[in-house]
């Protein structure tokens, strides 16, 4: 078991996501930054779909009740196990009673704690990702416990990986034209290609809204399918990048679609950080 | 439907998704055709795809892996379409949803009737008369997109959405009516409440209704509303469809 001593912000259990339930209007969910999520499992030599703990900006404090190994990925920060400074992107030994804390969250937004064989919350619709009205709770609160299996074989492997950190710091996002892209004026298309855009304070697991506005002369629409990474243009001209917990359908023009990699990159951008769109064709 | 010249556009949507889209229209014949097109795609691809998302005029096909040769996929998808879909129809199911329009359960109906310069009874009558068609589920888990609202009930959404619309609220927004399957912020005008649950992860399927089904509302009084709510909490209530 691991106990949530302090909950942090939007601290949730996440895995690859929930696929095949859009027909009931259920979002995909899953780790915001899939690259960091996969890295945590790779460091622990886990199966790729093992569930991790994800948090946003404010880290939780976790107390472990069984021996195991963990790995911390995502944010750049200083983690401490029992007040001893430890490394990110590394296998870490956790003893029964160990407490994990974080200081100095230097860069990026979403942090991940992976554990050997994953945190084993029960599946709901083939996923452990927490989401309102699908799982019992929508996030991890102070005093809650999550199960995991004891693991003591850690002397056999002690891996570390050279991580190329610059990947997350890229400001350029690969995007494809969305279904309504062609309806934009040349001026607006040019702005999308050459302008720089900044992350607004309105960011969550559902969507990231950008500060800069475009002219919007497009007709209103009937509801259409959307996916994580879809960039919608709202009636007021705001650009909204849909993220992992987004609805399955939406009624705003879909002007761009972020690549899988770009979704991971933008998820780690903080308020006022700059991004640019790099237009690609499939 | 014979007179329709249906033209589909095929577009790559993301690294792993293809969008099939036709003119923007809310139309039952189009829905029927899309249901059969979707079925044909699902049968052909099996486990190669995650699922096909259906909306009024679109199918979004989500593939498991990155799409390598888009023109092969377009060709496949086009060949999976048949004009025979126009003639086919699935067995129609009709769901009767009990709704309490009583002002004790739903006080907002009074202000809505005032706004529409109608009596509460007229509102109830206009809302319970049509057979609505379920087009797809989206917005929230278990939220049904219905067509068939009487034109006299069309009402623009609230300019200031309510912070909390309660689960089971039956509401009108623009030319649509719908049921909130869970507590949610919302901008629609609430006119009634149903005790029926539209989404439950513990039942299979999670939502009893599916695209192409029909739905109608039936007015119940406060006592019946309380009784049904009680039976639902005891797991003693099952909604049974009528086959049309």
Quote the distance from N terminus to C terminus of chain A: 45 Å
Helical residues, percent of chain A:
10-25%
Tell me the quaternary state: heterodimer
The CATH class of the largest domain in chain B, by name, is: Mainly Beta
Strand order of the largest sheet of chain B: 7-6-13-5-14
Please identify the structural class of chain A as seen in this structure.
Answer: mainly beta
**Total helical elements of chain A:** 4
Order of helices and strands of chain A: EEHEEEEEEEHEHEEEEEEEHE
Number of strands of chain A: 18
Q: Give the percentage of residues in beta strands of chain A.
A: 35-45%
Strand content of chain B: 25-35%
Number of domains of chain A: 2
Radius of gyration of chain A: 20 Å
Helix-residue proportion of chain B = 10-25%
Q: Ranges of chain B with pLDDT <50 over ≥5 residues? A: none
Helix/strand-derived category of chain B reads alpha+beta
Provide keyphrases for this structure.
heterodimer; A: 282 residues; mainly beta; Cyclophilin; 18 strands; B: 244 residues; alpha+beta; Gyrase A, domain 2; 2 domains; five-stranded mixed beta sheet; four-stranded antiparallel beta sheet; 29% strand; elongated
Describe the structure.
The complex is a heterodimer of chains A (282) and B (244). Chain A has 282 residues and is mainly beta. Chain A has two domains: 2-166, no CATH class; 170-279, Cyclophilin. Helices cover 11% and strands 35% of the residues of chain A. Chain A is elongated, with a radius of gyration of 20 Å. In chain A, 48% of the residues are buried. The mean pLDDT of chain A is 93. Chain B is of the alpha+beta class and 244 residues long. Chain B has two domains: 9-86, Gyrase A, domain 2 (2-Layer Sandwich); 93-243, Cyclophilin. Chain B has helices at 28-45, 70-79, 108-116, 120-128, 222-233, and strands spanning 9-14, 17-21, 49-54, 58-63, 93-100, 132-137, 144-147, 162-165, 169-173, 176-179, 184-186, 189-193, 214-220, 242-243. The model of chain B has no long low-confidence stretch (mean pLDDT 94). Chain A binds chain B through residues 19-26, 124-125, 132-134, 176, 178-179, 221-225, 227, 229, 247-249, 257, 259-260, 282, and chain B through 11-17, 19, 21, 24-26, 50-51, 53-58, 60, 62, 67, 70, 136-143, 145, 181-182, 199, 201, 205-207, 210.
């Amino acid at each position: 078991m691991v106990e949530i001593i302090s909950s942090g912000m939007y601290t949730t259990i996440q895995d690859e996501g929930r696929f095949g339930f859009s027909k009931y209007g259920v979002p995909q969910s899953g780790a915001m930054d899939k690259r960091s999520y996969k890295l945590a499992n790779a460091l622990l030599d886990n199966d790729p779909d093992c569930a991790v703990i994800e948090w946003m900006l404010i880290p939780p404090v976790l107390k472990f009740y069984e021996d195991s190994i963990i790995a911390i990925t995502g944010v750049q920060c200083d983690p401490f196990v029992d007040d001893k400074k430890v490394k990110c992107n590394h296998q870490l030994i956790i003893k029964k009673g160990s407490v994990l804390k974080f200081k100095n969250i230097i860069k990026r937004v979403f942090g991940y704690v992976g554990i050997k064989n994953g945190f084993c919350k029960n599946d709901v619709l083939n996923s452990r990702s927490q989401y309102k009205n699908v799982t019992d709770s929508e996030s991890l609160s102070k005093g809650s416990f999550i199960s995991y299996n004891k693991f003591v074989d850690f002397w056999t492997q002690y891996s570390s990986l050279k991580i190329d950190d610059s990947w997350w710091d890229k400001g350029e996002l690969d995007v494809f034209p969305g279904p309504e892209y062609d309806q934009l004026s040349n001026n607006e298309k040019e702005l999308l290609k050459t302008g720089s855009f900044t992350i607004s304070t309105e960011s969550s697991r559902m969507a990231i809204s950008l500060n800069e506005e475009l002219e919007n002369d497009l007709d209103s629409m009937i509801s259409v399918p959307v996916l994580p990474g879809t960039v919608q243009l709202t009636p007021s001209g705001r650009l909204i990048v849909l993220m992992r917990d987004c609805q399955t359908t939406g009624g705003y023009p879909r002007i761009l679609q972020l690549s899988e990699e770009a979704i991971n990159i933008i998820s780690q951008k903080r308020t006022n950080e700059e991004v640019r769109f790099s237009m690609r064709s499939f | 439907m014979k007179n329709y010249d249906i033209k589909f556009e095929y577009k790559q949507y993301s690294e792993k998704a293809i969008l099939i889209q036709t003119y923007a229209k809310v139309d039952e014949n189009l829905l029927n055709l899309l249901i059969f097109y979707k079925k044909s795609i699902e049968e052909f691809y099996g486990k190669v795809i995650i699922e096909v998302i259906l909306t009024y005029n679109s199918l979004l096909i989500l593939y498991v892996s990155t799409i390598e040769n888009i023109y092969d996929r377009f060709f496949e998808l086009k060949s999976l379409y048949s004009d025979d879909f126009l003639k086919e129809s699935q067995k129609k199911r009709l769901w009767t949803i009990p709704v309490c329009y009583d002002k004790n359960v739903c006080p907002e109906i009074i202000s809505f009737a005032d706004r529409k310069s109608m009596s509460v009874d007229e509102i109830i009558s206009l809302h319970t008369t049509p057979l609505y068609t379920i087009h797809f589920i989206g917005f929230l888990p278990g939220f049904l997109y219905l067509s068939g609202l009487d034109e006299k009930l069309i009402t623009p959404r609230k300019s200031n959405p309510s912070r909390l619309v309660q689960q089971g609220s039956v509401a009108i927004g623009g030319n649509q009516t719908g049921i909130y399957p869970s507590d949610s912020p919302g901008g629609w005008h609430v006119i009634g409440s149903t005790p029926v649950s539209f989404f439950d992860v513990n039942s299979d399927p999670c939502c009893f209704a599916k695209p192409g089904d029909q739905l109608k509302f039936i007015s119940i009084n406060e006592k019946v509303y309380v009784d049904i709510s009680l039976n639902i909490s005891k797991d003693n209530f099952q909604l049974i469809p009528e086959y049309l």
